[in-house]
Amino acid sequence: MHINAQCENGVCRLQMEGEFTIYNALEIRSGLLEHLAANDEIELDLSGITEMDTAGFQLLLATKREGTRLGKAVRYVSHSQAALEVIDLFDMAAQFGDPLLISARR
Fold first, then answer.
1. Per residue in 88-99, pLDDT tens?
2. In 3-state terms, what secondary structure has residue 1?
3. pLDDT tens-digit profile of 55-73?
4. Which of the following CATH numbers is that of domain 2-105: 3.30.750.24, 3.30.70.1060, 3.30.565.10, 3.90.1170.20?
5. What residues does each domain of the chain span?
6. Dist. CA 23–CA 29, nearest whole Å
7. pLDDT-wise least confident of 2-6, 7-11, 22-26, 44-48
8. How far apart are CA 97 and CA 37, in angstroms?
9. What pTM value is reported for the model?
10. Is 49:83 a contact under the CB 8 Å cutoff?
11. 16 phi/psi in degrees, rounded to 5
């Protein structure tokens, strides 16, 4: 998993690339929390995710909750098919982006 960050004026866009799975969960978690701590707002571009399991899903949920706890915005955009499948499995589209846009990508 690779996270490409473009940060400017307290807003950080994170391009997620690769597998979002239990095998790299600790590395991903550290990167997400680091960017969340350093910025007022993060936007996670999920278009480059090639595989996601429940550990990856839990990281998305935990990042959103940590952002709420810290009073920082966390947004998810450009969901890949792999991300959509797991989000849909848990019926959590409303938590991870605009449900109408997500449904349109199917």
1. 888 888 877 654
2. coil
3. 999 999 999 999 999 999 9
4. 3.30.750.24
5. 2-105
6. 12
7. 7-11
8. 21
9. 0.85
10. yes
11. -90, 130
